């Protein structure tokens, strides 16, 4: 699935930019600030709040188009201290998963300000995290306006799902070459996205109590998903749709029999930033399309 931006979403995005660019009496000066953001959601937040021009570095997972020309300062998912310090930051914004700790301590020892924001794994945490980032940047009024727009858009999508028969959706975290095959459950992140889009998280529905559980044919058959959700890189790692459908147990599920598969960009699915409402709306629309498919 490719998330498309409807006219409504484009207008909302324009509103976000307009709001973020407005000056506020409570905003503190950020003159001379050089910001590095270390997760996709934090990068989105800083740009949506109107401080994108101050961002001088980002992590590998930050796939926001507006940030694409900023240097990457991570090696895979770890902080690359040399690359980070090379962009001469004054402020580094991270979450609880950013590491290793020794690298962050090394950055702090140079006098660079490092701010830690709580990790988000649910749509209800988007606005509180946005507010925390805005507080770091001294712009709380911007977060209040942006947060109201985000909440309104999520509520609109939820209202549209009121007459929607919820399909069971299983999120599969797959990394073929590494031999990693996991079934998402409560607290995984995608579970919240699935539910916000009007679906039922299949892993949660069968009583999983961990965010991720090793994928077994038995668990997959028990989950009985109507639709499979995977990341774009995950799908590529198993050689596409055909490779995914060949995983043991998949063909025994309603999703496998009807070839119902949705994809989402890795950085967007786990970002829980200002772009998430677009993702939720896109997945809801894609659920409707997928459920029109019948077993061959």
Q: Could you list some keywords that capture this structure?
A:
296 residues, 43% helix, disordered N terminus, Rossmann fold, four-stranded parallel beta sheet, alpha/beta, 12 strands
Structure description:
- The chain is α/β, with parallel strands linked by helices and 296 residues long.
- The protein folds into 2 domains: 151 residues, 3-Layer(aba) Sandwich (Rossmann fold), CATH 3.40.50; 129 residues, Nitrogenase molybdenum iron protein domain (Rossmann fold, 3-Layer(aba) Sandwich), CATH 3.40.50.1980.
- Helices cover 43% and strands 16% of the residues.
- It is built from 14 helices and 12 strands.
- The strands form 3 sheets. Strands 7, 8, 9, 10, 11 and 12 form a 6-stranded mixed beta sheet that branches. A 4-stranded parallel beta sheet has the order 2-1-5-6, sandwiched between helices.
- Strand 7 and strand 8 form a beta hairpin.
- Helix 1 runs antiparallel to helix 6, helix 5 packs antiparallel against helix 6 and helix 6 packs parallel to helix 14.
- The two termini are 20 Å apart.
Write the layout of secondary structure elements.
Layout: H1 7-21, E1 35-37, H2 40-48, E2 55-58, E3 74-75, E4 78-79, H3 81-86, E5 91-95, H4 101-109, E6 113-117, H5 126-136, H6 140-160, E7 168-175, E8 180-184, H7 190-196, E9 200-201, H8 202-205, E10 212-214, H9 217-223, E11 227-231, H10 232-237, H11 240-245, H12 254-258, E12 261-264, H13 266-269, H14 276-291
Parallel strand pairs: 1-2, 1-5, 5-6, 7-9, 7-11, 11-12
Antiparallel strand pairs: 3-4, 7-8, 8-10
């Amino acid at each position: 699935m490719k998330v498309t931006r409807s006219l409504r979403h484009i207008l909302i995005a324009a509103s976000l930019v307009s709001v973020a660019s407005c000056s506020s009496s409570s905003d503190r000066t950020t003159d001379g600030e050089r910001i590095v953001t270390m997760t996709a959601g934090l990068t989105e937040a800083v740009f949506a709040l109107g401080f994108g021009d101050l961002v001088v570095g980002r992590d590998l997972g930050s796939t926001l188009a507006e940030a694409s020309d900023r240097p990457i300062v991570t090696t895979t998912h770890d902080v690359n201290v040399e690359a980070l310090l090379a962009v001469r930051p004054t402020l580094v914004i991270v979450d609880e998963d950013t590491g290793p700790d020794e690298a962050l301590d090394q950055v702090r020892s140079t006098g660079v300000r490092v701010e830690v924001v709580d990790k988000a794994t649910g749509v209800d945490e988007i606005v509180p995290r946005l507010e925390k980032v805005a507080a770091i940047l001294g712009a709380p009024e911007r977060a209040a306006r942006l947060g109201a727009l985000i909440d309104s858009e999520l509520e609109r999508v939820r209202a549209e799902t009121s007459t929607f028969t919820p399909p069971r959706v299983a999120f599969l975290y797959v990394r073929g070459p590494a031999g990693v095959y996991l079934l998402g459950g409560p607290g995984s992140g995608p579970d919240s996205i699935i539910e916000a889009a009007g679906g039922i998280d299949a892993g949660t529905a069968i009583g999983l109590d961990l965010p991720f559980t090793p994928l077994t044919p038995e668990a997959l058959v028990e989950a009985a998903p109507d639709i499979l959700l995977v990341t774009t890189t995950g799908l590529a790692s198993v050689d596409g749709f055909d490779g995914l459908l060949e995983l043991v147990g998949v063909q025994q599920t309603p999703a496998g029999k009807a070839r119902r598969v949705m994809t989402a960009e890795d950085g967007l699915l786990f970002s829980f930033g200002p772009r998430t409402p677009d993702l939720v709306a896109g997945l809801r629309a894609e659920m409707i399309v997928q459920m029109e498919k019948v077993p061959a």
